[in-house]
Specification:
The chain is 27% helix and 19% strand. It is of the alpha+beta class. The longest helix is centred in the middle third of the chain and has 23 residues.
């Protein structure tokens, strides 16, 4: 897929903060989407859950009060890829 998903909406960038908690789980939060909090056993799982939570929060916000001002993906950008090695 390019910059548009299956609904034709432009993909946006949401900055996520990942923190490993003393309990051994990873917590994902974002200053870009108010209320976004996700937890997973791995950083990847926390990010996957955060993506779903972000979609739901953005959809709910759009129904109530309009859109959230997020950065649109440009033609080129850096992305940290998480791999088990």
């Amino acid at each position: 897929m390019g910059a548009k998903d299956k609904r034709g909406d432009m993909e946006k960038i949401i900055n996520i903060h990942i923190e490993k908690l003393p309990e051994g789980v990873y917590l994902a939060t974002s200053d870009d989407v108010q209320g976004l909090v996700a937890q997973g056993r791995t950083a990847t799982e926390a990010l996957e859950i955060a993506r779903d939570v972000a979609r739901k929060l953005i959809e709910a916000r759009a129904q109530r009060a309009g859109t959230i001002n997020l950065t649109t993906i440009s033609d080129s950008f850096d992305y940290p890829l998480i791999v088990n090695a």
